[in-house]
Amino acid sequence: MFKRYLVALEYPTPNSPINVDDPRDFRNLVLWLEDQKIRHYKIEDRAGLRKISIPHEWDDAYKQYKIDLNFPPQLKSKGEELQWLLLYAIKLEYSDNIDKYTSITAAKKAEKEKEKSAAPSIKSTNPFDNLDFTTKEFEEGSQKLAEKLGITYHPDHLIALRASARVISTHLNKETLKEEVISGKPYPIFESGTEMGFKDKDLEKAGRILRLLQIQSVRQLQTAINETIVLVQNITADPRTDTKLGKVGF
Fold it and tell me: Which of 83, 108, 232, 237 has the smallest count of CB within 10 Å of its CB?
């Protein structure tokens, strides 16, 4: 139903049918249009539209979004609203790139299509290239993985997936698994003597946690610097003699 519009807007999966009666499909497409094409809000003001998994908050944000975009009052169904949004996005895309589109003629378009059909197609062997990161199944899988790893729930499944990747890469890699489990008394992060100086208790806790994370980050950076120094020293401490050039070293 909306394929031509989606192709014109360079939507990632224009051939996949959009079910306007599926709340997740509808919300994802509205968010994509605002993020990539319409950009009526500043990035930080799009937080409500990102809460796809929280229906009542997303609905409230969408109602305000329609007011801010001056939706025509005669639009009654979600299909009509989505069609209006798509056409509005196409209008903005055209106005932003007038020089690009005015030079396009039917003959040039036909020639480009002919070149595309003649070009050899390259099929990717990477299975991740064929994944749709917006499907319900992918979202559920991401949240289940985070839950198994003991990661706190986050409404955005991509952020939860990023956290899972970090836990796996830092704590479940081969080198880490070879190390002995650290035992002993944990660092007294919430005891007296480690205060940050905030009057608000929640801010104080967050500040202490962020300070520890920063210390860990600095230690990792120092480790990387030390490893680099060792590698350079191994090269400079083992010069090779080339008698033909009359030089010692590189």
Answer: 237
